[in-house]
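ok posting inputs for the flavin-adenine dinucleotide job
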Amino acid sequence: MSPRILTVPLSRRGLLGGGAALLAGCAHKPSPMRLAPGLPGSPVAPVTGPSVGYQGPVPVRAHERLWDVEKAMAGPTGLQSAPLVIVGGGLSGLALAWRLRDLKPVLIEHESRVGGHSQGQDWDGLAFSVGAAYFAQAPAGSLLSREFYRPLGLHRAWRVAGPEDTVMQGGKAVASFWEGTTDPAAAPDFTRVADHFRQVSEEAYPDMPPGEWQVLNSEQLAALDRQSFREALVAATGPLHPHVEALLQYYCYSSLGGTLDEISAAAGYNFYCAEMEGNCTLPGGNSRVAERLLAELLASGVDVRTERTVVRVRLGDNAVAVTVAGGEQPLVINADRVVMACPKFACARVVYDLPVEQAEAMRRIKYRAYLVANVLIDAPGPSETMGMYLLDPPSDGFTDFVVAEWAAGGHPSRSVLTLYRALPTDGGRASVFDDASFEVQRAAFMAQVQPLMSSLGIGGAPIYDLRIQRWGHALPLAARGLVADGTLALARRPVDGRVFFCNQDDWALPALETCLVRALEVEAEVRERIAAR
Ligand SMILES: Cc1cc2nc3c(=O)[nH]c(=O)nc-3n(C[C@H](O)[C@H](O)[C@H](O)COP(=O)(O)OP(=O)(O)OC[C@H]3O[C@@H](n4cnc5c(N)ncnc54)[C@H](O)[C@@H]3O)c2cc1C
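and the output
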């Protein structure tokens, strides 16, 4: 649920070495940041009644358009031109469009709402996430704070949580996990690993995308990336205590979509070291970031078009022809430049002039599916808990949860628990593709929800709805070796100085920070090409 990275180790060092002062100003009760309702294409959908079936993207619609382009383009076709087209209105596309708003880009989004995996819903004023929930702390002065969070005013609305160290075991919340409270006799087995994470943070943090403060050189980063997270941990700290192994395994499932043995050590450290620092949460999770960006784009006159799918991108002599299905009529936009801010599996299908080896690199990136359930409860929730991991979930169960209203400082009469269940195997997507799987999944969530509510002291409170969001291609898998063997660098390489790539899968790291850092990098690439013309 909570992939987070610190992309600028300066921030990390600031936090570890006396950064508390920097953060003190952030630990306030947030002021509500509510936008005018009805923002067209808003990533936050209102709850209008109990749900029926899965929420989220309808897989068939995308497949129909992308797999049968001729059918999607039947009928008369409109023609337009634009200096820049951005394909995909997830956080990467939105952030990039905002950075390049002076170029008046056209942003095309397949779904009816922008936000991609950072969307939310609003239950009469209680906003909750249906995907990404929070991000790493960013002290004032750090790159992302300067370039995004403060200009967007996000720092006025977020609530900062300290390092979350409480887990649930046997239905009980157990604090200070890394001190060994679940097995005091073996406490050194816990503290040794925690110390190791701290040391990596301070001395060898694998900053990805590499920033100006990268401490590892490219060979060191590649060496780390060739190992699995488990291999690197065991080599550094010895055999993992079963509780440590369980926590890190479920963390890898939930945040990175794979197992400790699949995930690259570079990706594992990148995420988990930041995890030990704490984070920022907004009401509605990261959908609030998307909402702020959308509001800014609309105010700047950027052309945001939802419910349209880019089905073909072709390099011509004078322009890049972007073929768009959906809307009143199919359309071809002749663009000077195009940024593909959608996942690489879509790029490999849509961008016709990709070098063969680049298309192959894109196809080597795997994506794992995900279910997120939101339990809407007609009673106040646990006021002190932001969320936690479960050490002993059932095999078909959720591994962690967050309390949605925590970010807004609580709610007087309602609560929403957001439950995270990644499907960390290649077959996971097929198991939920069919709509008929909904009832089975709902029953599995419900079986775990009642005991969880009792553990949180709200057992028996009335449940208004349990809404399940289905994500088919949720998390790009940070499999070992993708950085070291150049797969990701090749997949994100611009084509002909006219087609660029900007997405979380550029580094196979599913986090807000990847999107924002890539937006800065691609902004620079695009401006450089324009200046060179
Ligand atoms: C369950 C879950 C929990 C998560 N939790 C967190 C978290 O707590 N913190 C965090 O930082 N990150 C989290 N993440 C990762 C999250 O995905 C990223 O932070 C971020 O939202 C990715 O944005 P993106 O724009 O790169 O990609 P996406 O969100 O995938 O956006 C791509 C967009 O492109 C659109 N698109 C695709 N093809 C086309 C086409 N042909 N034409 C037009 N549009 C197209 C899609 O509809 C989509 O809107 C989570 C992810 C999931 C699934």
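notes: Confidence is low (pLDDT under 50) at residues 1-32. Residues 512-532 form the longest helix (21 residues).
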